[in-house]
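Quick one: co-fold with pyridoxal-5'-phosphate.
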Amino acid sequence: MSTTTETTGSAATLERYASSLLGVFGAPKLALVRGQGSYVWDADGRRYLDLLGGIAVNCLGHAHPGVAEALARQAGTLIHTSNFFTTPQQVELAERLLAVAQAPAGSAVFFANSGSEANEAAIKLARRTGRPGLLAAEDAFHGRTCGAVSLTHKPAYREPFLPLLPGVLPHVPFGDAQALRAAFAEHGDRLGALFLEPVQGEAGVVPAPEGYLRLARDLTREHGALLVLDEVQSGIGRTGRWFAHQESGVVPDAITVAKGLGGGMPIGALVTMGPEVTGLLTAGQHGTTFGGNPLACAAGLAVLRTIESQGVLDRVRETSAWFAEALAGCAEQVTEVRAAGLLVGITLSGPFAARAAQLAQEEGFIVNPVRPDTLRLAPSLLATREELGSFVDALPGLLARAAREG
Ligand SMILES: *Cc1c(COP(=O)(O)O)cnc(C)c1O
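Sure, here it is.
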C-alpha cells in the first residue's frame, strides 16, 4: 500500500531529503529542477546564475544540445556492455583523450566513473612499481575513497577512517621546492609516486608556482618514482588549456581526469604516459563494471568535440583575463583573485565567504565558499561576459553586507 503524497517545491523536497538521505553532505542549499546554459532553476521557479557548474563538472553549461543529443541518441542505442566488450564510443574517446593530452606513443587510457576512482587506478599503478611510498601535498584533494582520501590532506576527511593506506608519507607543503627536495632526499628510493594537482581546487584555486612541476618531474625521474598529475578539476579546458600542466611543458607519467570530461555525466579516466608506465598494469590487475560505458563515453566525445570545434580554449583564456581583472578591482573586500582560466578563487578580507555565498544565492548567484575567506567559481566554459558581468556588478554590494554581518 502506498500512501505517499507527492509534495514538491523546495521546502518540501528539502524536508523529505532530511529524512531519507545520509547526512554526509549537510543540508542541501536548494532543490534544483532544471538548467539551461549558465542558469539553473529551483523547485519554486527561481533562476540562478550557476557560477559553480556542479563543481567544475558542467563545463558546457546545462542542457547543452550537443551533449543532450549525444546522450539521447546513445541511450536509445546502447547504454552498457561490460568490459568483456568494447564500443566505438569508448575507443574514440580514448584516442581523443590521448591526443589532447599530447600523450606519447604507447600511452593508454583506463576509464572509471569518478575522480576518486581515477586516482585509485593511479595508486594501483604506483604500487606496481614495487615501491610502497606515496607522497602528496598539503591542502591536496584527491577524493574520498579509502585510497584517494589517504592522499587527501584535510585531517577531518582522513582521521575518522584511520588506519588508511599504508605507505602514505607525511604531506609536503604545496609549492615549497625545498620541502620537496628534502622529502625526496629522505624517502626518494622508497617512493612509488608523487601525486600533485597543477592547480589545487579545493584549497581555494592555488596554482603550483612557476618551476614547481618541473622540479617535481626532475626529482621523480631522478629517484625512479612516478609523477601523477591530478587534473580531475583543472583538466578538460577549465584553465584555457586541455590540461593545466601543459602550460609548464612537463610530461607526467600519469594524468587523472574526471569532472569536466562528461559535461555532467559521471566518467573518470587514468591516462598512462608511454609504454613503460602503461605496461605496469596488465590483464586482470584492475577493472570496473560501469567504467567506459558507451553512454558516458558518448557524452565525453560530445564535450571534447564541442571544445575543439568552438574554439573554447581560446575563449576561456580571453574571458578569464577580463573576468579576473574585473573581479580584482570591483570591491575593497577582494584582496586577491587567482584565475586559472575559469577556475577562480577570490580571497576576501575576512572569514565571511559563507555569508557572502548565502547572500549571493538570495540574489540569484550560485558560488562556493571553498574556504572561510575564499569564494570559488567554476562557471560554464561558455559563460558570456554579460552573464559573468552581472555577478561582478552585484559583488560589491554582497561583500559589503557580508563583511558587516560576518
Ligand atoms: C573532485 C576531485 C576529486 C574527486 O573526484 P570525485 O569524482 O568526487 O571522486 C579528485 N581530485 C580532484 C583534484 C578533485 O577536484
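If it helps, The chain has two domains: 5-63+311-405, 68-309.
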